[in-house]
Amino acid sequence: MKIITFSSDNATEIDKKLELIEGISQATNKQSTFNAADPSSNTPLLIASQKNYS
Q1: Cβ 6 vs Cβ 17: under 8 Å
Q2: Residue 28 to residue 26: CA distance in whole angstroms
Q3: Could you point out which of 1, 19, 43, 49 has its C-alpha 20 to 30 Å from the C-alpha of 13?
Q4: Using the 8-state DSSP alphabet, how is residue 31 labeled?
Q5: CA 40 from centroid of its chain's CA atoms
Q6: Does the global pTM surpass 0.70?
Q7: CA–CA separation, 1 vs 11, rounded Å?
Q8: CA dist., res. 47 & res. 41, Å (int)
């Protein structure tokens, strides 16, 4: 996690900050999505069953 802070309260600067935040948000949301199956893909039971059927 990275935290970005701003110090100016100028209206133009606020618009630029919001634009930056929106860009970061969009870039983050374009990364690969988290699937509910992802954390369980390495469970011992699943690994054992894969070994038995491969």
Answers
A1: yes
A2: 5
A3: 1
A4: S
A5: 19
A6: no
A7: 27
A8: 8
Measured between alpha carbons, how far is 27 from 29 in angstroms, rounded to an integer? 5
3-state secondary structure at position 32: coil
CA separation, residue 12 to residues 15, 17, 36, 40, 42 (Å): 5, 9, 41, 47, 49
pLDDT values of the chain reduced to their tens digit, one per residue, 54 residues: 677 777 767 777 888 888 888 888 888 777 766 666 666 677 788 778 878 776
Closest C-alpha among 26, 4, 3, 40 to residue 49: 40
Nearest to 6 by CA among 21, 28, 26: 21
Tokens 């039971």 appear where? 45
The structure tokens listed for 15 are 């618009």
